[in-house]
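Apologies for my clumsy wording, but are you able to produce some protein sequence, whichever is easiest, and the tokens describing how it folds?
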Amino acid sequence: MRETPDAMPLSDVLLGPSPRARILILAAQDDLAGGLSDGLDGLGWQTVTARSVEAAERAVSDMAIEGIIVDARTGYPPGLAVRLKAAAGPRRVPVVLLGGHDNDADLHMTPPVHPAQAALRLEHLVRAAVASEEFELRRETFKDQGVDLTPAPSQVVRRVLVVGEPDPRFLALANVLESADVELTAALTPYTAFDYLHEREFDAVLLWGGARRTEALSIAAGIKRNTRLYHLPVVLYLGSDAEISLDEVFGRGVADVASPDTPIEETAQRVLALADAYRRHQTIREILERARNSGLMDPATGLFTRELFASHLARLAAASTKRHRPLSVCVLRVASEEGVDQARAGGWVDRAMPQIGAMISRLVRSEDTAARLAPEVFAVALPATRLGEARLVSERIAAVIGCTAFHAGEDRTPFVVTFNIGEAERLPDESPMSLLERAAQAAEKATEPVG
């Protein structure tokens, strides 16, 4: 745990080989912050700790902090969240309060908080903040081309699918959600749940993890395997505090877990926060879909064209410097294999491109920008993303598309597409084109197709 003592200049504290801090913990004592900091460090969320508001403001201003956790049990001055966010400048930084209350905080959680739980919530909050930054940049890019991406006011209520037997605690949570003007749809079985998911649009899924916890996890895994539903947030509400493997739960695609001792109002808030983030995600997709006929998007796939991507990548690079955020690029090139080569000769690969482009657009996050650089070459710009994370994104895209069989004509075996993938993280002061070229060169040198 890295500490920022009030009496020591921040520049002195940061000397040495300590990893780059991503999360600031503001806490007067270590009884809660110590274990949380160590746990987050172990999960890859490097932390730095401040003992006072002033030290926290200096850390946020001088470091590339992505999120802030405040131990507010002993109280802090009014307007704390606003002060900390202002210290971050143009970078949007979410604030999580443990105990206490601040209307300007992004999330309130009741201590004690498991590090894996905190990491999961931070992931969603940080990505939502980055998505907000990216959407403003995207609007500027399209405005330069004479296209207005201003979203129309949304009057649609939030829709949540609740799945599980009618336990009193589960019903109590449903009542709280309904009081927040959420439209609930109840399903008692996985079969009914998936029928609803295919027929209607939802902003979140709430699973009751009572006696049928394994069944609930199978629903989460099934949602994650569906390209259209991939980003739909799933919350597991546990019926007991029995031993549970968080690694297994999160590996099945669950976005958040609420334990039975968590206040119902807090659990409802977390469901609503995920639903709102997903709604924003969908809104951005709908806006880009409307821009498909603007002449700026690739007509076959609906992705950015090479020229529009280059323009936007330049804006992303400038913003990454200004906001002290990393920027990575992935390039995916259709690999040459026997089945693909035969399908290519018959024009079937070209016919598959609209479907492949649609799959890529659904698999990337709302803050990521996907483009078609050439007939069989795609690129994804990933703001606030390190090289290792970029690799996971490209591998995920390739793996999901690799599970799809594409038509190759009558009496011919369907073909499967694999990719040569390459990634690059922007170096200090590196030009956008140099970044893209390094990712493209890495894809060209890749010897093992992924899919």
Remarks:
- Residues 1-19 have pLDDT under 50 and may be disordered.
- The first strand starts at residue 2 and ends at 4.
